[in-house]
Amino acid sequence: MMCFPRGHICAKGLSLKDLHQDPDRIRKPLVRQDGKLVSASWEEALELVNRRLKDVSHASGDGSVAVYVGNPTAHNFGLSAGIAPLLRSLGTRSLFTAGTVDQVPKHLASELMFGNDMAIPVPDILHCDLLVMLGANPVVSNGSLWIVPKFRDKLRDLQKRGGRLVTVDPRRNETARLADQHIYIRPGADAVLLMAIIQRLLGKGLSVDGKYKVSGEAALFGSIRGFPLDDIEALTGISEDAVSALADDIAGASNPVIYGRVGTTLQTYGTLTSFLIEVVNLLTDSLDREGGAMFPEQPYATPSAPKRGLEYNRYQTRVSGMPEVTGQLPVSALAEEIETEGEGQIRALVTLAGNPVVSNPDSERLQKAFESLDFMVSLDIYHNETTRLADVVLPGSSPFEDVHYDAFLGSMGYKNAARYSPALISGTSEWQTMLTLSAIAATGSVPDATALAEFEDNVIAGAVAGYCADETGPLHGRDAQEIMAMIEPESGIERLLDLGIRAGRWGDHFGKQDGLTLKQLADTPNGVDLGALRSGRLPEVVRHPDTVINLAPEVILAEISRLKDFEPGELSLIGKRKPQANNSWLRNLPVQGRGKQACHLEIHHDTARALDIADGDKVRVSSSVGEVTAVAELSEDIAPWVVSMPHGYSEVAGLMQAQNVSGPNYNVLAPAGRFDGPSGTTALNGIPVTVSRI
Q1: Alpha carbons 182 and 289: distance in angstroms, whole number
Q2: Per-residue pLDDT tens for 26-69?
Q3: Which of 153, 314, 404, 674 is the most buried (most CB within 10 A)?
Q4: Could you give the residue ranges of the DSSP H alpha helices within 180-328?
Q5: What residue ranges define each of the domains in the chain, with the CATH number in brackets?
Q6: pLDDT tens-digit profile of 283-320?
Q7: CA–CA distance, 325 with 426 (Å, rounded to integer)
Q8: Contacts 24+ apart (CB under 8 A), 238-244
């Protein structure tokens, strides 16, 4: 049994065999001929990619090619590692990702506060005595940006030692049903609630003086103290007494911790909400200490470039001036970047393991924009709503053909641990495909085996040079050729993995100390337990040039001012996740048939009665940009001011066997112009809608 999940396995893991054997999985390249996608050889497909990319670049410039990265990329080490070489080779900054419809406000808040977009603290659930959870459902998601398998067991242990869980959400979700207290809140009002809590904590004399090295506290707390909260219940749906009681509980707990997830980021004040969560943790002296919000670690390290101020909004989208965040541009701007003529117009698109036509806002507009492109190539394992629009579809690998190491979410665990799994069967890995696409873009020709190996050597050599140039890293000043010679094995994505592990905190630093190597991880197939989270890490993770936590970034003060205009909607749509569906990843697998999988619209009994809707009725859900039909499911577990529907479904016919669990596409209802201001992340929650019985 692996040391980290202790027997837990998620739906993706249970479905690996089904996915590998799925007859609908793409196994050969597809190319468009006479308007239809037909099977082709790898050579034919890659030659077409080479020719068409060159045509677009010559006609419209290198910046006319964009890349879209889907959610599964973050869980595939080779695929994610191939993004940077591909962007460099294409000569483009037009990177759009699924993260910009999910988690980017969290990263931006960390960049603004700590100067480090990956400094995302997680609850120390093993030692806290009060866990307040906003917009999160770890029973279903296993934590998302907080990896906490077997959450039920850990919550039971927390409660046995006298601790409490308080959930705040418009819906009494699967996690809330286990909580000691659940508080219903209006969608998008989390920042208002946090402002009220902070006002009360300040009134009790709590401060950050002497606890942390901070700047801007007077400006931040002055803005918060002056924020008008005359009718908190009208704004949040929570009574004045309930807000005060929650603030009292937080102030009185020995080890309180506040945590927010997707419900706090998929809204119009996502960045501000994420920032204020950590302000509460600072005020209660909970940040970076046992029982509070702590910063996990993992063996794999990446080199740090010299910090040159705030790494945010370094460039913008061409049409609306939407900001760059962590090198990503918001998908909410993708359609207009394709539609709008002029210098820099996107004319070609590479999609990686994503289905943006289903998973992104204003889906019908995005589909029309994709249809207008001069060229589109998709790397995917399925023929889906997006790949059906491509000119070339390259098959993704089976999970058994790829190396597995979680370099992204491995940095967000409830404890420090790591596990490496080698490829189980031979095949074309997605790392190889990414290198091939990068080499095509860089050289203008399809590489043979020798040329591809040389290209990979250059990529690895560039990575080594980055580690050797990192003034804060253990390889600083080392001879790059010496390091190259010591990396194992001699080819493949494992070389990057061995490099990062050996250059990390627990690594052997290439002979400078006893420590981990990739070989040692490979020899420990059940994983390596690296111990509990470590307090006192703030000096390591804060990367502002003055190493001070910034409590008053201009963008946050501006958001507090904008929050004064917040008005709750009369009836709003919020999303939810079906545990078997895992977003849309598993939509084609037998796991979908387990349990209740129909795509229903959850609606409160009182709301349904007022709208003359009965359980099982067919209803029309309309927003400012679209409408869908769904089946009503009456519930007492949802606030009367919201309705809820799962995302990741579609009703496009003829793609794959998943149509027996098809359903309305939630994102048809999501306006691309409704987003979190600082990050550009689309507000997929709290969409104003009307519902009527058909």
Answers
A1: 26
A2: 999 999 999 999 999 999 999 999 999 999 999 998 889 999 99
A3: 674
A4: 190-203, 217-225, 232-236, 240-252, 262-265, 270-283
A5: 11-92+304-404+420-525 (3.40.50.740), 104-298+536-563 (3.40.228.10), 572-693 (2.40.40.20)
A6: 999 999 999 999 999 999 999 888 878 899 999 999 99
A7: 37
A8: 238/183, 238/184, 238/185, 238/193, 242/183, 243/193, 243/196, 243/197, 243/200, 244/200
